[in-house]
Design brief:
The chain has 248 residues and is an all-alpha fold. Helices cover 70% and strands 0% of the residues. The protein contains 8 helices and no strands. α3 packs antiparallel against α6 and α5 runs antiparallel to α6. Bound molecules: fe (ii) ion (2 copies). The site of one fe (ii) ion has 5 residues, from α4 and α6.
Length: 248
Amino acid sequence: MDEKRRQLLTGISLASAGVLLNACRSTSNSSGSATNEKSEPAPGEHEPVEVTATEDLMREHGIIRRALLVYQESATRLRQDPASVPPDTLEKAATLFRVFGEDYHEKKLEEVYIFPTVKKSPGAPASYVDVLLAQHARGREITDYVLSITKEDRIPSHIIEPLARAMESFVRMYAHHAAIEDTVIFPAWKAAVGEAELDALAAKFEEIETEQFGGDGFDAALQRMEEIETSLGMSNLDMFTAPAPPKS
Ligand SMILES: [Fe+2]
Ligand SMILES: [Fe+2]
């Protein structure tokens, strides 16, 4: 199994990995490109879902945002009760961010296909590209830092505050970063490449994803994310419903 996919699937049962790989085979032809062929999913598999190139990028942001919510929640909990955040859970979130967010979404898609096209296009969106690249680089430094600290069984008490601050500043930066990409950069890229090329690029992105992860990287990342949220007791969406505002 490819190293990237192994990293994503660490801790996922072999049966689940098999379902993910079968789901991948049902959406790819022998050359690995995306196809519209309908095939009956085996019991336990989901129907293959076709996504556009921009939808693909935006749902990857969904995984990235969920990892950032884990950082945000972990920063709060670490200050209240350091023992409530197992370092290995934080390490899994940082590894997911590294493998799926940085090595795939940023390096293989945005920096190769999206940013160069937007940078060459006339208009305001091009002016964001250098900052977005600098933020990718800063994010990787912070991921290195989180990974280096979470290797041990225990986070030393003097590291709690700097770690919490690093994660919070990462969350703040990336929330703005992904929001600009969703609302300015991806629409500008879509306009620059045109509808016909977008379809070809959707297939290309699928091919890169299969090459990078040896299967459906999004499904594997989603499953990994759900496991991380469950281990931190964050899997119940309703726990995040805001309280009613004060009566005026
Ligand atoms: Fe980005
Ligand atoms: Fe992005």
